[in-house]
Amino acid sequence: MPALLNFSQPLADVLSKARSDAQRAALQRFDDHGLPHPRMERWKYTNPSKALTDQTFILQPARTPLPAPLAKKIEAIATPRLVLHNGVIDPDTSHDVENLLSIPTTPPAVTGNCFAELSIALSDAPFSLALHKNTHLTIVHVIAGDQPTAAFSCGMIEIAGEAQIDEIFLSPETPTGHLACPGLMMTLAPGARVNRQRIIDAPALAMLATNDVITIPERATCRSFTANLRGQLLINETHARLAGAGGDARISGCSITRAHVDNTSLVEHIAPSCTSRSVFYSIASDKGRIATQGKIHVHRTAQQTDGYQMSRGLLLSKQAEIDHKPELEIYADDVKCSHGATVGELDKDALFYLRARGIYISQARQMLIKGFVHTAIDEITDDDARARVTQAADQAVERLAQSF
Amino acid sequence: MLSIKNLCVQVDNKPILKNFTLDVKAGEVSAIMGPNGAGKSTLAHVIAGKDGYDVTEGTVTLNDQNVLDLEPEERSLLGIFLAFQYPMEIPGVGTMTFLRTAYNTHRAHQGKSETDALTFGKLIRQTCDDLSIPHDLLKRPINTGFSGGEKKRAEILQLALLAPTFVVMDETDSGLDIDALQSVAEGVNRLRNKDRAFLIITHYQRLLRFIVPDAVHIMSQGAIAKSGDKTLAEELEAKGYAGIMGS
Fold this sequence. Notes:
heterodimer, A: alpha/beta, eleven-stranded mixed sheet, ten-stranded mixed sheet, 21% helix, B: alpha/beta, six-stranded mixed sheet, four-stranded antiparallel sheet, 8 helices, 12 strands, 39% helix
């Protein structure tokens, strides 16, 4: 029988059984603080406590066969693919990843991030991947169950050379809300490069809290782009550590929602001569709310840092809300850091310009909204990856446009 | 063709156009000149259907059809084209996507089938060549990073593509050097024909050296103060607005 997860009681009391010492310690740390709430500065704009406290989830139920269209979609993914079904690797639908999997190690403790703690504590089967050659990998997250389901996964990926990682969410649409917490620790080798694109197109009622810890040593580059396109509550926490000279971190994304998205990133410049760039574009309609919090922390050792952060928001209704919270914390003195934040409505003059050429207002609005989000997607340098994300984002805009 | 009768327009309760009356016949090029604040751009915007203007009286008809109750896109589909004084930069929206969408919307309105991307690509490149417009403009987002001259040439490209019946050119000469001005004027002259009329709004006579008008109207304080043929523009250049209005 799978265990039940209910946040109204201490988790360690009911879920410690059959877990490792590290997992029990993480559970205990989670229980010490409980679910976060808006009285905490980090969680001023997003309230996981309200969303989760009264719900009971079935923790990682056993796999059941997927609906045929979904199985076909997974089958059609041509790259090596790692399928995480309710947080656990599905050997039947995963493909060509045997050589990439390595023996799992105990994940290091991540303190101060409750969802990272949960990913570690409640993951039934942490996995490790070693991408040592130029590899294109697709990670597929499937969350499925007739009852509200909770899925936690914890992955560690070592990257040498060049890697392309696509991460997608394919789940059957269900009338119940699921909870997924995929945690990923990416560690790059010196000089390694990774392009990671994540398309979060979850069931409408799903709640998702992703957390990434990315370590970037000397001359390594990480480009990560997250498209938040569907789900009731989407939380992305990214912690990028520029640990070696000449490292480059590009943590960007776009959010298109009528629900709630929270993007929180911390880019830590620890070593000198590193660059970072974060570009987040947000589109909120109806009563949608998007919070983007981005912090660049420049340590005293990180001279000649070049950091850039831009957050732009587009409000499509009077009830929608977009909150930006950029933060620069700088302890070195030879540093170039800048940030900008804007929120606005669709440009009326631009709309008139398109209409004056005969384009109907609904289509003109869609063109402008897509144009806005494409500017963010242009951060993706790989043509094929950019096309995939563009297609998914365009579909999200079209879904949103149905309420215009 | 276009007939404006007793048009009164206010912005924030301030009268801008006052009993403005003008007729432009098919095949004609009419120029409207006037000092700053005369209401020239308001006239252009009201004809094209921009928000923010209160029409309190009067009519604007194109071939006897009232246009004031139409949305901007409906006016475009009817055959009205506004060449903007300040064409909008729209980052993220590709020029090709924009042009093809506009073109196919016009075709659908005319009951014609959609033009596929390949056929449209050939058509637009040919149109560019006819107007000596570099293809490079097509690869960029709408007007984004274009020079002043490129923006105005892109307007002429749209004009050629959509083949409207009535064209309002709102200070198309502003911000152009003499070479760009000539090039834009050449484009317009190529597109003049007996079924198409132009209303050219300008401050200066210099554009009218290259696009020779059939009629020149001088606008002052929201109405036409004086009308004449192309020599009126030359007279204006010599005497200035104060000199003309005083005579």
